[in-house]
Amino acid sequence: MDRKFGILRTKIKQSQGVVMERIIAEHNADLCVLCGSTVEITKEHIIPQWAFEANPAKYLVSAKNNQPTTYIRATIPACRTCNSDLLGAFEDNLKRMLVEKEPEEFNNYDRDCIIWWLQYIGFKLQLMDLRNRFLKYKGNEYIPFLSNIPVAMFWGRDTTPGQVFRILRKSRRNLTTKRKGNKYHSLVVFKTSNGSFHFFHKVNEFIFIEIPQIKKAFFLFYSKEFKDYEKACEECREMIEKFYDR
Ligand SMILES: [Zn+2]
Q1: pLDDT of amino acid 52
Q2: Which pick of 42, 97, 108, 199 has the fewest CB atoms within 10 Å?
Q3: How many A from CA of 38 to the centre of ligand 1?
């Protein structure tokens, strides 16, 4: 696992300039967003299928756009090698570890992998927002002058394209590092017996994903770091109260 995970991170690192330039010039470019290859492009699921297989009808709703996209349909382009071979091996091992271990048994390497995985999902969600055009708010009129603007431009009150690209670059660069020690306190893991898949996120701030198959839920603060783990738990609980849709 570690060897393939290492190869994947190196590929991401070596293609950072090429991939970011291409995506900025052409948001919907059909190239592997992990290595930059344009050969054998496949669809890589933003939320892995194994995470929601019990609930195929669940929707992934982008808060600003309010256009439901099914989890199954939400994909980004990745070449066959990166998707099936490298990422596939990483996720198989991650899933196995998550099935076998309780949160208190996680070692630092397990935590590194979970954080990397959540950072990767965050990057894919950002990319999806860049590639999706703003259509209309659900139930409201189509707004012609907004129809060509990527959803990503609505992340903040006054998000500029420059800010969007800076966030995206940083998120992708985070995928080149293996050790996530500075983020350990930013990750909160829960045991759950809830039978349904839940998910919510805020770009560059946090992600929550609850996976019934492994009886665990994860919350990661993307940018915030905490000296005190209890503080992180407290803030995490507040966010869940606010955003969890039961
Ligand atoms: Zn690739």
Answers
A1: 73
A2: 108
A3: 8
